[in-house]
Amino acid sequence: MEEEECLSHSSPSTDNSLELRLQRVTAENIKTVRILVSSIFPVSYSDKFYQECMNNELTGVVIRNGEAIAIVAVKPENFETGRVLYIRSFGVHPRHREAGLGSFLMDFVDEKGKLLKLPHAMLHVQTSNKTAIEFYKNRGFNVDCLVPQYYQRCSPPDAFIMRKPFH
Ligand SMILES: CC(C)(COP(=O)(O)OP(=O)(O)OC[C@H]1O[C@@H](n2cnc3c(N)ncnc32)[C@H](O)[C@@H]1OP(=O)(O)O)[C@@H](O)C(=O)NCCC(=O)NCCS
């Protein structure tokens, strides 16, 4: 298999033996990326989402031993409150959590936000997802508002919008 293109973002891992590296989603790794996404999130992502993620510098995946173990995907979006860097997907495989990978993904969000000169990052999170809400709060996000019935096929269906300023 060809080595996937490496994105600029990399840092030493909390596991001393491994360096963390974000790669692009490519035709070679899309299968393991799909497996990761379906194992992490209760919502299913469309083929369009995966197409948009491929060879896109605003999406990064961590691949270890041929297996995708973390994903981050962001996109500039216009909302009523203005233009933001929207976090479309953000997750770590359950076996690899609490080892600094989520923080590493957040560095990528910050890097892209600054590069694109966007004032805020924004995301939707299921109201029951206490771990993620706490994780985001610890990294400068605040709950902005509640969006009832945001998710069509999840229980609970409600989401919080969380935002954080880049400056
Ligand atoms: C939210 C999520 C991305 C966090 O990922 P993660 O890899 O566990 O994140 P980190 O390891 O960087 O940090 C999580 C906690 O682990 C702990 N931790 C981090 N590195 C550690 C280490 N080396 N040793 C021990 N504990 C560590 C920290 O206590 C940290 O908590 P903090 O917020 O107090 O700093 C992950 O739980 C996840 O994928 N959840 C499911 C998907 C999801 O809900 N995504 C959000 C949708 S909106």
From TrEMBL:
Enzyme class: transferase
Pfam families (UniProt xref): Acetyltransf_1 (PF00583)
GO biological process: mitotic sister chromatid cohesion
Organism (species): Caenorhabditis elegans
InterPro entries for the chain: Acyl_CoA_acyltransferase, GNAT_dom, N-term/lysine_N-AcTrnsfr
Name of the protein this chain belongs to: N-terminal methionine N(alpha)-acetyltransferase NatE
One MF term in the entry's GO annotations: protein N-terminal-methionine acetyltransferase activity
GO cellular component labels: NatA complex
Cross-referenced Gene3D superfamilies: 3.40.630.30
Domain of life: Eukaryota
Domain N-acetyltransferase: residue ranges: 20-167
Reactions accelerated catalytically: N-terminal L-methionyl-L-alanyl-[protein] + acetyl-CoA = N-terminal N(alpha)-acetyl-L-methionyl-L-alanyl-[protein] + CoA + H(+); N-terminal L-methionyl-L-leucyl-[protein] + acetyl-CoA = N-terminal N(alpha)-acetyl-L-methionyl-L-leucyl-[protein] + CoA + H(+); N-terminal L-methionyl-L-valyl-[protein] + acetyl-CoA = N-terminal N(alpha)-acetyl-L-methionyl-L-valyl-[protein] + CoA + H(+); N-terminal L-methionyl-L-seryl-[protein] + acetyl-CoA = N-terminal N(alpha)-acetyl-L-methionyl-L-seryl-[protein] + CoA + H(+)
EC id: 2.3.1.258
